[in-house]
């Protein structure tokens, strides 16, 4: 591993102690086998040095192949960001996030803009390292790795006090208070310490107390001062993780410090230490407490975990994690527009499967519901979310799609520049994401189209027939075909969708991979029924899904009315789980039909509650309308019912019939009475229920579970990632024996059974 360290803090002949902790970390990394080159920016000479450093950095990158850049301090990170070829890690040090202090401990106004810029920089690098949890909380994306600066335990160790005093020509009888910095640094609050010591002298004139400061000393001489003095005092206004405190403890020295950075974590419960405020009275009291504390206890042991070798291992772990994520040849960018991730279960399952297979996955999706973080990492998957208004009418869709396109293109560009990726994986609806992928195709990025929904058929279901809507449908067909033509491969949720990709999209059959939406049987396990859900009823019938216009829920309420009032079956309760645009209207309709005492609308629930509810049902239902979209689509609810061993009554549609097999009974399309009678007949036949439940579990386990789909997903990626991408297109003609009419699963051989 070869690393370029960029820093504006590094020891030199002029400033031998400046940035010694950076040099110590560099040396420890070299000792651990990391090849580190250092680019030092002498920014104290002139701010122009930072501009010169950009040119020097780019020259070094041309001359040598580095795996990553590790920048120390925010300004160094800004220099590192002037390239996009290799990953960047920034270690923030304190002032770069807090700002520079004035003599009263307040941040100078002139430093605040840079502190803000440095905080925002954390959004645009591959990883951030901070010295304490308090620093992490300052970042807009507080997921930095907290690594305190290490301590060279060989250099900083207990020495004989009198020998050290003799070498430094110090009085053997005086009490020395060590202030390990030059007195002219406002943030360190030397003036308050001086006033506190004056107060101690006034209280005890017989006690000879002197402040010992350090300025311009090389690091190897610092242990002499620490072992010669009686107590180290650091009353700073703020710090990240003060090295002097840890180094003094490694020398087994008594320590007084203000409650900044990780000081409390280091000193809590350690004998001979005290935490003070930043005022002279508090500092004086803490010094007296520490000097009078003669309890046994090794302060050195308290910082043993910060041995510089151990800290180097933590830094290397960050390097390794960044390099794993930054491998461009294994990078995937998934884009989904209609649902947030991880709420979109299919997309989340795909992302986790790809991550487990060694791909580095990033996801772009909208902010919805409780998923409002702009960026977070879950299970090693980086999620980028953007604001997106939901269209409430046909007029609102162009606005929604325009905003989505802007954010998707912007975020895709940022991610590509930061870490790169080999594949863009677009999940419809809508069929517009190919516009985002198109410019990256010119850069060699592959494009996979994950065909979740039939947008032209979905438009018919939503808007109905008519000349105006026919124009919309034709436009959607054009966008659909353009998406397929740009795609290097497509993923279909069933064989009907595969047939459409081939015939309507012109995809070669070998380039279309069927990956069904399926439950993970490790998570979808039946639970013990909850009798409270029945509220005294003998039977419980369940539905889960979107509460939308094409789901046929009004027909379901008509069926329930027939069961309750026509068949006089008041021993059956219905529980409907889900949310959507029609939820309130459906509740009103249930009240109008006088069936609301037997119908419960739960709204959206967690997966755990959903499994509990469905496990308690005797029968589950799917009342979808008989539309072209529903006829050709595989519904998630069907396999979820089956995973829990539930018999199903559903409208007899082609893909639903194929998916459920013997686990479902088909009712006549758009016939609520037949649907109702099928439910009642099934509830009366326990033998059939048991037989269908067994068939449901068996079919999911053998064919429809998620672990059966993962190999097909990975086969698609293996094909796209290979260099042998010759046959991408396939055109059907009239002489083809297979019918060109859009058909259902059994039009093609189904490789899922």
From TrEMBL:
<feature type="domain" description="Glycosyltransferase subfamily 4-like N-terminal">
    <location>
        <begin position="345"/>
        <end position="516"/>
    </location>
</feature>
<protein>
    <submittedName>
        <fullName>Glycosyltransferase involved in cell wall biosynthesis</fullName>
    </submittedName>
</protein>
<dbReference type="GO" id="GO:0016757">
    <property type="term" value="F:glycosyltransferase activity"/>
</dbReference>
<feature type="domain" description="Glycosyltransferase subfamily 4-like N-terminal">
    <location>
        <begin position="28"/>
        <end position="150"/>
    </location>
</feature>
<dbReference type="Pfam" id="PF13692">
    <property type="entry name" value="Glyco_trans_1_4"/>
</dbReference>
<dbReference type="InterPro" id="IPR050194">
    <property type="entry name" value="Glycosyltransferase_grp1"/>
</dbReference>
<dbReference type="Pfam" id="PF13579">
    <property type="entry name" value="Glyco_trans_4_4"/>
</dbReference>
<keyword id="KW-0808">Transferase</keyword>
<dbReference type="InterPro" id="IPR028098">
    <property type="entry name" value="Glyco_trans_4-like_N"/>
</dbReference>
